[in-house]
Records
---
Amino acid sequence: MSVPLPRLIASSRHAPTLRDAVAAVRRRPVDLLLAGPRGQVGGALRRLLAREAAGIAARTGVALRLRAAFDRRGMAQDPAGLDPFPAAAAFAPRHPRDWADLVEQTVDHGTPTMLVDCTASESLADEYAGLLAVGIGVAGANKRAGAGSLARWTQLQELAANGGAPWRYETTVGAALPVLSTLRALRLRGERILAIEGVLSGSLSYVLSRLHEGASFSGSVAEARAKGYTEPDPREDLAARDLARKIVILAREAGVPVEADDVAIEPLVDPVAWSPDAPDGATDFRWRVRADDAEARGRRLVAVASWDVDGARVAVRDVPQDSPLARVRAGENLLRIRTEFHDALPLLIGGPGAGPEVTAAGVLGDILSASRALLARRGGG
Ligand SMILES: NC(=O)c1ccc[n+]([C@@H]2O[C@H](COP(=O)([O-])OP(=O)(O)OC[C@H]3O[C@@H](n4cnc5c(N)ncnc54)[C@H](OP(=O)(O)O)[C@@H]3O)[C@@H](O)[C@H]2O)c1
């Protein structure tokens, strides 16, 4: 889905002070190459950059500069920095060499630079290794590299660790919730992670909660689709593949080398036999029986992604109605992490887990953390 290109929003929200003037002298530019600027998350990120860039520069000395913005339709660029809302005419049509040229110019320019990936593109994820190898950082909400082949993931982690160009992807699970950073912190201090389980799919939470409110399964899916909670083809959501990607990312962050194929997935429908345009009564009946049966036992159906010593799984489970997992509302995520020191009472991280604005806020957090790493790499942090 794409958002229109609005006019420039004024970025300065406070009168300059002496502190600002001192900070201006210390300011270090960091260039951003934004992929997907006209998408939901990319659009929200541009709005945030327009609003916050001046304040961030004053507070941190990091002067974020939009060096280029591109999608598959067009690319806009300016070495001196683009307006966060370049006019549509600034987007020149793509040509086969423009990406390679941009990377080459960026390396020659020498300013700390990162790709900000607000797409779901596999081909862009394939570029990460080449970028990290030449010192260009990567931050973004694209799950493809985090959940793709373990060989590529390991290569990216090694490139980031050895060369110092950062790779940040906190928002790929739980939007702006500090989920991956928490797992990383636990591992760094040597705390053994025993199990992870979470309600991490807004679309599936919506469908199952409407089912408990009495709606039919196919009616719930149609509603979720109409509200924009699902992919254009809701079978993508019902096949639970996106949820499987999230548990792969989480398990890897917990130190477990899983591949996507290792996840045992229980899809909600057979994506070949079931169609949102011709829902069948048998599927509706099966889900009605399941929901009523759970309720009769004081339980509730929840789509849970989990990992423990027995492996990674994605399935609809019935959990007690007073379980924190059962109380997650549409749009929220909840993650439960059991460790050697948080065993009987696991760590809980919960809150808004999707939505372009909150995801963009999380991406901005990753941009700042990656900026600091890029500047430190050059002795300027
Ligand atoms: N929306 C959310 O609440 C949310 C939350 C967490 C994470 N995410 C993740 O954030 C990413 C973006 O989500 P979104 O909702 O913003 O999607 P979206 O609205 O579909 O935007 C994606 C944009 O990426 C562009 N794009 C696709 N392939 C590209 C490529 N190879 N190179 C450059 N640009 C490309 C598309 O433009 P063209 O088609 O013109 O190329 C499109 O404008 C996804 O990975 C999603 O899973 C989203």
---
Amino acid sequence: MTDKTAVQALVRPERYPRSSTYDPAWLIGLDMGPNPLWLLEDLATDLDLRPGMRVLDLGSGKGATSVFLAREFGVDVVAADWWVPAEEAAAVHAEAGVADKVEAVHTEAHVLPFEPESFDAIVCVDAFEYFGTADGYLPYLAGFLRPGGQLGMATPGMTREVRDLGAIPAHVKAVVGWEAIAWHTPEWWRFQWEVTELVTVTSARMQADGWGDWLLWARACAEVQPGGEEANAPVVEMLETDGGEYLGFALVTARKV
Ligand SMILES: C[S@@+](CC[C@H](N)C(=O)[O-])C[C@H]1O[C@@H](n2cnc3c(N)ncnc32)[C@H](O)[C@@H]1O
């Protein structure tokens, strides 16, 4: 038994040393989905991000991952998002002291206003599932990477393809509906990307205990967000029912050929 609150349980330096230096209350205040810093910190172990690189944070939300990229890796970030106004994200970047390293851009993922081959890396945390599953998307996105540039994506994923199961598992369908058909396995992503011969996939894995991380996040949000218990109850229940059988995160990285 522990007397830690659910929010305090988000500080886990043994597993996520970099993320643990960020105030969990700040991160929950920017919540749009399960702990984006844990996902990014883990994903980054499969990438080679170096100071001065130009990195696109695609589907950057309210700004936490862009702050993390600028601070932890010294990269120059373009934070591109569709649902969050650029001014709102820019205020988060400024407050965090990285306004000089991060540019917020309001854009839709299929009409990106960037020059071809203008990024050293593209990172996408918990957003690719909304726009990136069509056959033509990887080829489109790869066009913005310089040759040898890196792509890294963390997305809700499942240990089995819905197609192979024949249906979305009932406990998942009850909460997220048809959207779960985009929660592909790492191997699905590996094939989908590699078959284009435009990139070489460098890693494709389910995050170790990603299901457990997701549950920790949902419980913390339930604890502190206004109306959080009610709002997060369905997700907590979905994850508890799942018990790690299907749900987690697919972490996939690649290099442009
Ligand atoms: C679940 S939120 C995650 C935000 C952030 N990456 C994080 O982890 O906190 C998904 C993000 O994807 C972005 N998104 C969804 N569809 C998009 C699209 N078609 N084009 C660009 N961004 C999109 C949304 O604006 C939203 O910020």
